[in-house]
């Protein structure tokens, strides 16, 4: 498959970054990655639903879940390889995340620029500019309390807010500016939600402010822009994440999202609360409680209010460096019959996830 012009541009930018670093004798590249697989057991033994998209068709058993779609069969979720040169001082930085698996395909399922972009999760260069730095390329979203990679989350399955309230990625530019010792500001200009090639003539803009201290961390996020095809009417997204250490072992996290698409006349919003306790070194117990409202059915495809409660125990595997096991129990409730091919209002899923980092 031939590379698109934009993919060629990203390769060229990476070569320029590498050449610049080589010339200054400061090349410090790193390669890392992981493999993520799971087995899920849904107690209602749901019927499989076929979910089509622009580039792929997915078989989904665990409705409203992201990435852990299948029931009662071992499944590969994601394989990721990261090539990175972090920005240091006045030298350029670069990052490339290559992905494979159903998670990668779901994230890029409707990418206007083509299916090959599903396998490039991130590709950007970082350029020192003033007191901050500029990122140029494709990068994961700045919204939300959770991310695509399991290893960086507190729970194995993704929250409803991650799955249905916010985008996965953006393509464009963003400028990071440190303010003092605890604050940071980021300004964004990009194609929109989940797009390398925009579907309309309008760009999206965003602003992030965060404060991180020993006492707490707080992130306030906003994105606005036209997102539907051939439309200039704006979609607004407000996202708040608050993290508070309670003591040496317990941490509280809160996440709230509100979104409104004026072109579709639709609104969706929700809140999530997390409590995490470190049992001992490498062993963590996390409880997540969540409420999500989609009154117009725009986000999930059905007008509904959904609640979920998840308990996760993460532990390392003795003798296997970089290997972790995730044991999870999750209960979902909806006021609409959406589970088991539209016949039930609740489902219970037990999952075992294994993540091997390298």
Question: What's a concise summary of this model?
Answer:
It contains 4 helices and 18 strands. It is mainly beta and 358 residues long.
CATH hierarchy: architecture: Beta Barrel
CATH class annotation: Mainly Beta
Give the radius of gyration: 20 Å
Question: From N to C, what is the helix and strand string?
Answer: HEEEEEHEEHEEEEEEEEEEHE
Name the poorly predicted regions: none
According to CATH, what is the topology? Porin
How many helices in DSSP terms? 4
Report the β-strand fraction as a percent range.
Answer: over 45%
Task: Write a structural description.
This protein has helices spanning 5-24, 102-107, 160-164, 339-342, and strands spanning 30-42, 49-52, 57-60, 75-85, 93-100, 120-129, 132-140, 169-179, 183-190, 204-212, 217-225, 235-245, 250-261, 266-280, 283-294, 304-316, 323-334, 346-357. The chain is mostly beta strands and 358 residues long. It has a 16-stranded antiparallel β-barrel. A two-stranded antiparallel ribbon has the order 2-3. The model has no long low-confidence stretch (mean pLDDT 93).
